[in-house]
């Protein structure tokens, strides 16, 4: 009796494994390679978790199906952390996806190791897209991918006009000092803790971007001549870091209590717990779609000095094609489809990101459809490419860690910056 | 006889070969590679594996983050293990004194239930519980009139929060083991002690504890080995932060290997972990053996 | 007078244990309550224990939009195969080590035992490299094959089989039974308690395994339950009520199985501690 039971169970399990193996297995990177046309082609497309992006991507897939019905695109979505790792680990294996919606600053490393299929019409693409945006996708004269957006986490902030009214502020801050003054008025406290943040710049991206922007707005730079090493030991760098640290410790308009949680500052904003939050324009779509908040707008952040609000921008999210793909040609066709003006327009609109495509960005109709991103579009001309960061995540992590340590009083600004400089330069050297 | 031997040999060969092969490929060889990988420059993105000598070891010894991880890991272990053993022993003794099969078993089940859930799942649940704004822990504090605590984001409470969660998820095992150990202590010993008029405290120290020494040793060793390698809750609840206060060695190794792709460096760190665990286990066995001989 | 004192301390003990065990239950209670909350409740940072407008939207999302049953199936099939495999190989190897002699037996056994001491962190990178060379990355077999043999199982089996009197085995051989038949019909039934302990241990370890599947599985549809829950959590960071719904659905079968097989669980666990 027991034996029979065991046998049955074993059969069930073999059956289920076979089932699991069948439908999931054979991680197809395109079954039949070769010419498209009538042959069914399957492309695997990896993207990261951002609800608005995912929606926009799905729409693109739908539209493409109408144009090329024989191509099936399998969209796979990963949370950001897992995404970074999975790509790193898989791009060199046979199980690599065909297309990856990769972050521009990562592309160089993969191109360098021969893991990406370059574009056939590189020069054309370079003409269509802003240099600061496509910069990261270029390597040794070849173009390895196409950006859809600028990663501009600078120059503008989410803001609740109502809170401004209630605090008696009737105009946007025009200088950095006014910004801080306003932030102090907007900060609310309850029982010794901040209940509404006046100005929140504590996101992973904001800390780094504003640190770099503040340096640049003082007229200095953080790179050496040939952009192989960074220098954070300048008085401008110290001032910049101090300014950011003061927001927490001196002006007390924000705190670090959400650091390390999955709740990012823009989420805190949309929960109504901040008055101003620096964030990229893509968060606008999140506010509208995921959080259902409508009564906010996007205001420009004044420059730190009298000069223009120069800042660093990265190549944003774009598509690359894997060299391992059995259908590289078909994959690139899809990428080109995404680049078409009307598709790019729709994608940028849906994700409220800043178009990398020049024609779309300069199209007055774009501003009409998305007036809220005006602040970001306005500062576009002041953007400079951030530079070859090699390991982008490490670069950002080190600066963020130092920021937290300085705020908590574990290290002085000077020492913290020196260590950051050393660590980053060591990383840059190792990836040269 | 020879025919018997032949069939025996064949049996051994046929049965053991696939098994040994699996052990070889998935246990022995990886251990071998794992211990020497730190001497090479391995990267999944390139196909060459140049020899690197002691480069990674030197790097390791001058890495502040490595020492931080060591400190965090040892702190975790130094707090969580004694806490675990103290709690589980006391609870086991307590449950053992309960009369009635039903209540005894029910208590044991209630305390054991969290242990069957995947640690990763419990970590997810506890993260929401520790949420500073809407989590149940702060809600409870609020009801008692106490201020809310940023459990997972305050550098001074993060590790404590994870320890609390770990204890909740883990005590079940040791409680069951201790209860079984207590069961095996003959009633006659307790009766004799009672006749002699011994106090409960005396009974505990001179009868219960010594009789449990073998179980105690086992529990100690298993818990130590497990706690040194603990991973899911650290990655899921705090990602090693804030300010790396929860960045245990296991998490550091994982990050180095699979996030930063420094697999050789990760192997160097893993090697250190191996040494620590081996040494610790040997020490515990030594102590245990000598105590037991009493 | 003496009995009164006794009763008082017993009451205290009982109450303490009762409170303690109820406290152990709080996270589950929280999980269940939160699973019935609505998205908007979570998003507006309201602070209530009980759901203000109980809803099944979380459950609908889990059962409708994600490959929930697939995750279950993945976990179930892989865990079951690992369990059966480990039981079989451990018993077989344990039998050979216990009752046979051959050159190098001692050394082989020590080597196998030694692998138990090694932390997973040492083997995870090399095993990953081996798996990727075998082209099995992101394949469910990658979380099965390495676990088909268990050093601990071999150890446990050997201990128990050693206790079987040699005469029994000799007798079977005299009767003309083949080696394998002796193993299957004589030895296995004798070590049933050890086998069931090993089965429970293997199954739970396989089911709850997080780190290795995390490293090796990429696709959502291939994930096992613990990994999928964390993944799902990453996708629903904001509306974690949905995550709690998933957690509840995951916990229910686990709890039910546990409650049914409680005795075996506990017995098995104690057994692993005593040899």
TrEMBL record, chain B:
Parts of the chain that traverse the membrane: 12-40, 72-95, 107-129, 158-182, 203-228, 263-283
Keyword Repeat in record: no
GO CC entries: plasma membrane
InterPro entries per the UniProt record, alphabetical: ABC_transporter_permease, MetI-like, MetI-like_sf
Keyword DNA-binding: no
Cross-referenced Pfam families: BPD_transp_1 (PF00528)
Subcellular location: Cell membrane
Keywords: Cell membrane, Membrane, Sugar transport, Transmembrane, Transmembrane helix, Transport
CDD domains (UniProt xref): TM_PBP2 (cd06261)
Similarity section: Belongs to the binding-protein-dependent transport system permease family.
Protein name per its UniProtKB record: Multiple sugar transport system permease protein/sn-glycerol 3-phosphate transport system permease protein/raffinose/stachyose/melibiose transport system permease protein
From TrEMBL, chain C:
Membrane-related topology note: Multi-pass membrane protein
Record localization: Cell membrane
TM region(s), chain numbering: 12-33, 71-95, 107-131, 143-161, 182-207, 242-261
Main location: membrane
ABC transmembrane type-1 domain span: 72-261
Biological process (GO), any one: transmembrane transport
Protein name, entry field: Carbohydrate ABC transporter membrane protein 2 (CUT1 family)
Species whose genome carries this gene: Cohnella phaseoli
